[in-house]
Amino acid sequence: MSKTDIDFLVCHYGEHAPFDSGIMYVSFSVNTNTFLVRQEIKVDGKINFILSDKGKIYAPVQQRNRTGILVYEWMAGRLEEKDFIDTGLFYSYGVIRSGRGYFASFSSGADGVVDLREKKEKEVFKHDRGLSGRSHYINFLSSGYLYSVENELNKVYILAEEKERLKVVDSIDFNEDNPRLMPLHPKAPFAYLLTERSNRIIVYHAEQSRLSEIQNIKVPGAEVDKDFCGGIAVNGTGTCLCISIRGKNEIVLYKIMDDGRLMFLDAAACGKMPRDLLIKDEYVFVTCTDSDQIEVFKISGGQLKDLDTALAVRSPITFSVGGNI
Description:
Blueprint lengths: L4 E9 L6 E10 L4 E11 L6 E3 L2 E7 L4 E9 L2 E9 L6 E5 L2 E6 L4 E6 L4 E7 L8 E6 L5 E5 L4 E8 L2 E9 L5 E3 L8 E6 L4 E8 L2 E9 L10 E6 L5 E6 L4 E7 L5 E8 L4 E7 L2 E6 L4 E8 L2 E10 L3 E4 L1 E2 L3
Parallel strand pairs: 4-29
Antiparallel strand pairs: 1-2, 1-28, 2-3, 4-5, 5-6, 6-7, 8-9, 9-10, 10-11, 12-13, 13-14, 14-15, 16-17, 17-18, 18-19, 20-21, 21-22, 22-23, 24-25, 25-26, 26-27
C-alpha cells in the first residue's frame, strides 16, 4: 500500500437485511481518486457498527439464534474471524478501555460493559425500568467519567463505574430534541452533541463530571421533524467538524475555533440518506445508505469539493470506530 492511500473499514447491510451484513476493508488513493476493495467479509446477521482496537476488530451482531460480538484479527493484511463473545444485548456503538468494552444498545435502551479478555458481559445499565429507551452513543470524558446519549428519553447521562457497576452521577434533559451522537474534540475538553429531530449542534465544555453548554446552533436549512441530522465527525487535529442531514441529502462543514465554538464554512449536496462520516486528512467520506455508495469530498480553502467518485456498496452504514486499522 502506498503512503498516499487512505484505509478504512465500513459495515453495510446485505441483500437480505436484517439477516445478513458485510464488512469491507477499503483503500482510497489520493493520487488517482479511486477506491480499492481489499477484502469483503459476509456476515450472517445484522451489524450496525465495528470497533477497532490493538489489531482486533469487534463486530456486535444479532443473528437468528444468538447475539454477541464477532472478533476478528489482522493476519497478513487480512481479517480472520477468531472468536465470538455471547452477550445479552445487541450493541450499536461502543468504546474500549483497559480490555473492557463499554457499549450502547439502541434496541434495548441500555448500556453494557463487556470484559473482552474474560469474554463475559459484566454489567447492564437500563436507562429506564420500563421498556422505553434508545441508547445511541457512549464514550469516556477525559476525566474518566462515561457519558451515554439517550435518544428516545431525551437525556445525556454522566456515569461512573464503581465496583463494576454503572452509576448515574449527573444528567442533562432535552425537550424532544432526540440527541443522537456526541463526539469529543481530540485535543481539548469540548464535546459536540448532534440532535436529529431539532437539527441542532450543542457545544459543551467538559470538566470532571459536568458538561457546560457554550454554544447552541441550528443547522442551516434543516427543518424540524423533516430533515433529521444523521452523522457527525471531528477531524484528527480538532480544526473542523462535519455533519450530515439525511432529509436534505447534504453535508455541512464547520470550522472549530480555539474556544471550541463552531463557525459555518460550507455545505454540499450528496447521495441519499447520508448516515455516517469519516474525516481523514482533508478528505471526507460519506456513507449514502439509500444510494448504495460511499462518496468522498475534499476540504480545500474552507470549502467542500465533490471529487465525483464513489464506491458502490449495498446499503453502507457506519465506518469503524477506534484506532487506526
